[in-house]
Design brief:
The structure is a homooctamer. The first copy, chain A, is α/β, with parallel strands linked by helices. In chain A, 34% of the residues lie in helices and 20% in strands. Chain A has 9 helices and 11 strands. A 5-stranded parallel β-sheet of chain A has the order 8-7-9-10-11. Chain A has a 4-stranded mixed β-sheet with strand order 3-4-6-5, with helices on both faces. Chain A has a two-stranded antiparallel sheet with strand order 1-2. At the A-F interface, α1, α8, β11 and α9 of A face α1, α8, β11 and α9 of F.
Chain lengths: 232, 232, 232, 232, 232, 232, 232, 232
């Protein structure tokens, strides 16, 4: 395979012939490039995490299979795999955030997505409090937790099926709500389309939405918000 | 236009060359055939309602324009047009129902659909109580009305946008909830698709759904339910 | 995993760190919380059913795999698994319903969904009569059963493909028809979209619809209707 | 506008700079080219029908507005416009068909599409019998006409909403059923998508489908079938 | 499982507790009920075919797996399984058709669907001629076969991807063309949606369409057409 | 019209029989209830804004037609209508925010949506800087403005068509990006579906999305973020 | 309206407060920025074209209404409006292309889109030859023109409905085919979705596709191809 | 299986009873027929490649599984399989192209599609340069390569998710850009629909699009463009 010649100024590191790591991203956006592990072989993942380790940067992998997780844990000292949220975490240089993120879910089945969000936010330094299985079909479960939820600086609402949790929460708290539709459900849920549309349509005043099952994206956006508190 | 020859036994009345009224429906299903007025000319509507009047049967028209309403009011004694819900009502023989129907809406813009439901249910004899603008974005509006809503025998939940009202209500009352998605909204509401999918996915335990904007269908189903109370 | 602190008043029982059982639901809505077993591990399911057993409440699991069913049968005395409808049934306190539910299907392939509906309705105390393989492509099969179907208080119409069974039935009986589209079919059935749309569009006068393959939801709604007969 | 040079052998006639009439189609396929009038100016339509008149060929226009119809009637002797089915008919040479076509509709609102089919079939020589407003929500209307419908050689089933008419008819007659979904309906009818999907999914044994609102296409296909009776 | 009591007049035979065979269909529509084998267990299939054998009726199974095919061949004398088209054929009483059916495909991958059509048509007595891999991307392959295709009484056009074969054929022959979209393709083919829409939109004059991959449906419709030649 | 009896505690004000204002929302969520004016009559809008004026609360109307705007300006002292962004602004008590919001658009046609966002943010006290027509088809337009954009605390990216602006911006700034897809475009833009999907899929690290054309929603979310800077 | 301060280096010209013209595009990509006129007021269009005139650059407007066209013709000397293709042409500096473009259409109704393509290509200097109404339903119309079409360097295939023209052409010529689906059609054409999908699926070997009705885009791409002939 | 009789003039070779090779395609369109290997058995693939080998023509297989690849390599001398791009290459007579093709990808996961494109272009004689992982989320990766990319005669942009790479590239280079959406992504990517729509909508001036994951189609179109340089 012939790759064009170029020099790696501007913080871009070439890994094998398949990836170009944006090592300057940390300085530029406040957050290191995250590694989307789905579809990568264990060898590719090891090479990428090893490059981050060499650069002394913290790195986070998402959608990581157990096999890839084990390979990187074995090859890259310090790397740690979390099975439920499927994240792979490498400690190192990062610009930490401060503040509390509440991660709420409609049901038990939303847990993997919620854990991806929670582990991501914690990795970047946020304090994370979990409120799981507080869906709107049984409102008192939610209302009973409300006081605690209101303490958070950002709320992440993870829900499949009808996805109403985000709207209801946004009407009850003052802080930004980030909605994560999940592919939990069947039939007319159409792989997460139903809660996605519901969340987009109920999003007046205080809700914005990320992709279906994108717990990482919600946490990353939450961290950008938390950083505002320190911005001059 | 050549129509095939046939005799009108079995309770079917031929009206002009364009409609065949199922006059036996009242006896068979407990409810006269309803007239879907959209796309009918004033002349066609007058002919149909006159036929019901001749048969002494009550008749209900839905999706009725002001022009068609005025024409029938002028030509058929007793017929009455209601503008907001766009119904046309002809008193006469019907099998009345007994019980209370609560019609709830998420917002003000859902009113035409809600009124179609309310007027239909009232036409067939139900006691109707309206709870409008009690959407879940401001939960206390809904919770403040809850005691009154719980008195109803059937709840009709009319909502556009994210359509969460039906699920939340079903978790708070014991009686059947009939969900009516509306085409209120814009963008990713896709003409009512968003609340339709939301209502179908949140419908475990006590919610069933009718077509987008189909206030009539919800009320007709509510009346069938009320009739169960008298069934032996 | 850090969960926020709270006390379990209001009838909510925390199970492990993954679920919050709404034990007050029985008193509030007349029906215990149902356990959606898809995506739950055998360990999670056992913990949840054991909690219901400790509370002395009846519990129903749906979408239950054989493995989960066997685990719960082994661990929780009294629990019973039904393979075709994939339900898991735990006897105990419940508020029973009275009346007859007719479960009709268009074809043989709709059987799992129909059995989910039938087993659910029977679990809550309804008398269930099955009319399977009476689709409209051979009308005389349906018409031959009509007298028996008319005896029911509620009719559940389960059909895939063109989904016409619900509309035809609603024109022939007086009681409410609950339509369940199924994902049976291929090509332009699009996983149940075709019968779902057909049932929503044919639903004037006496049909309301639940999610694709949601036999449980149809039965739960039927039970709410049957309870109307005892409501004051 | 520069058009490439070519000679008009092979039966193609150039009309102005916007159309190329396939005058050999009559000999090749048994049916003259039909003129789809939507989007054509009156001047373009007049030029096209005049060209057919000069060639002595019969011609049929569909989707013809009243304005275009009047213009052609005024300019081309013998041309006749039918308002309900929006067809424009020019007598002349054609290869006639023999046999009877039954045109059935689910409701009154399907009439324009049904008339397009009926006028097209009659134009080409078929005997047409109309069975309008025989939808499956009131089965006895259909069953009362069944004996007459069975006399036809081909059945065209025109229906919107749930579109079940085609499947039910195909189970009751021996001859081919051509299904025409219509855009009649609202909400989840999605402009005819619902009956289209329903008809495609119920089409085992004896149903094939044409485009939404395509009454012409159904009649043209019916005529091809009738011609089989004379084929050697 | 409790089934309602009924007697099997009207030609309906109960098989086990899962199917009701419409044995009168042969007399009523000219074609025995076909058995859709997908989703049926070998035991169910054997029971059904044995019932047809007892009644002396020919029977055709479609979408039949190799396992089901082997089971029926072993248990029901005379039954024969065809692997490519996945049909299961039981000789016996049937009303044969006369005439020739041309089965054309756009590509090699459409073969299973085409064979389902060809085997079905042959089973009911039609003479079948195959024209495979004559797609429009290489027109001369099609034009070279045109004379032979024109001899057929009905043309079945089987194609995936862009599905243009049906329109092109309909412009070249006089007889009815039945279009079968296939799920062959990838990406924006969306499981056969692309050729389905293409065939519906190109279907003026002589094309009607069946469901995606429904070779059986096309052949059954072709047989109804062939029967017209004998109709009085 | 019969409305159920209730007292207006909890900050809910009944307006006529069509709306229930949530006057306690300001205290609860930091932002007064916004009035969605589409579908409201001038009389309804006047009544609602007059109620806010009586309560001394600031109020913001969106999707306001010129006619409704003029009626409210005439009837409610202090109300002001902005035509491009279609907002209606009533000064009064509100909890102001502090910080800078950058509103960027891909093209000129996105202006009405962008102005809705800009006017909303300004109404609640944010400093707003506009960067219009900086779409990615001409990158240097965007790069030339980058330094200025980076000064903002929140970036709102408004774009139709391919919607790439949000992703590109998020890679260049540190602060949260809120993406607003617009219905600008034609053909395969499908009313804003294309940029909506693009923005959801490119939303890793720092992008969250609101409904199509929902400039208001983006600004409201931006204000919640700005408020985080003062949160303890 | 406050716009951020910036200086217009890099060839960007600010027009009013609504547009930023990329005057350096001509040098950078070989083609001046085109003006998408839909949604622009006459005043905005006049200002933009006047700016191009001042810069001495040629400019092309597309999707231009008659009103906007007249306003610009009146205000900007040399500007010329073409009604059918809705283009607005301003002569001036441009980098001309050399070679022949064949613009083919399936039917007469595709003419506005085809003319947009033809006028665009001619504006940039290509020789354009039109082959209109050569759709595949009458193959001999196309085959009769084939020799002339083969002389072109690039073929643009404009077609609605089933969109097969592009695939058929690509199998008959050696040069690149650019496919333009049009929104011509009805029913299951779904606004151009059907031909779009068809063209994407038939695009192996020599077809690439632009947006629905995007005649301009096809011609612009054709011009880039023609420029390859002069590239070193 | 009965195939119709015909003689193989016109360059069509019959292979077994399942394929008809268009050996005249090379002379007619400049490129041999490509073999779409998905769904073909090893035996069928061997037979087809052996036929090309006998004819002395070069042949290219795409979407080829490892098993099919190994079978053909073993049976047909000279055939070579490339695993990443899943191509199967048989040297032989072909009409080579001249020029350089740049293959760019948004991310690492797009590699299989990109390699299909690169291997195809190289097979037909183009010089191929790869620019992988240069997505727009980190613009400097792309800008750092821009000078090299600009040397190419044609650019192929392969991207999933938001698909913005094509638009951004087209604004930076002068040559044609061919966009290949990929099915990389999840959730609202809907199998490649999101980048497909984005690429179609951003395609003004210099972008045309092929099917999702169709690397081959992009390269084939690129080769047609390169051939223009030699056309007279």
């Amino acid at each position: 395979m012939v790759m064009s010649e170029y020099d790696a100024t501007d913080g871009v590191a070439q890994v094998g012939d398949f990836a170009r790591l944006d090592l300057a991203r940390l300085a530029r956006t406040g957050m290191a490039e995250t590694v989307y592990c789905a579809g990568k072989t264990p060898e590719q993942a090891v090479a990428i995490f090893a490059a981050f380790a060499r650069a002394g940067q913290a790195a986070l992998g998402t959608r990581c299979s157990a096999a890839v997780g084990a390979a990187v844990e074995a090859a890259v000292p310090g790397a740690r795999y979390e099975a439920v949220g499927r994240t792979l975490q490498l400690p190192g240089a990062k610009r930490p955030v401060h503040g509390q993120v509440a991660v709420c879910t409609g049901g038990t089945a939303d847990l993997p997505v919620a854990e991806e969000a929670a582990q991501t936010a914690a990795f970047f330094g946020a304090e994370v409090v979990r409120f799981y299985d507080v869906g709107v079909a049984g409102l008192q479960r939610l209302l009973g937790q409300l006081e605690a939820i209101r303490r958070a600086d950002v709320v992440i609402a993870v829900a499949g099926m009808e996805g109403a949790l985000a709207t209801v929460l946004a009407g009850l708290v003052e802080v930004p709500v980030i909605a994560v539709p999940t592919s939990v459900g069947y039939g007319a849920a159409f792989g997460g389309l139903a809660p996605l549309l519901a969340m987009l349509n109920g999003c007046a005043e205080g809700v914005s939405v990320v992709n279906i099952d994108n717990g990482f994206g919600a946490a990353a956006q939450a961290c950008r918000m938390l950083r505002l508190r320190n911005k001059e």
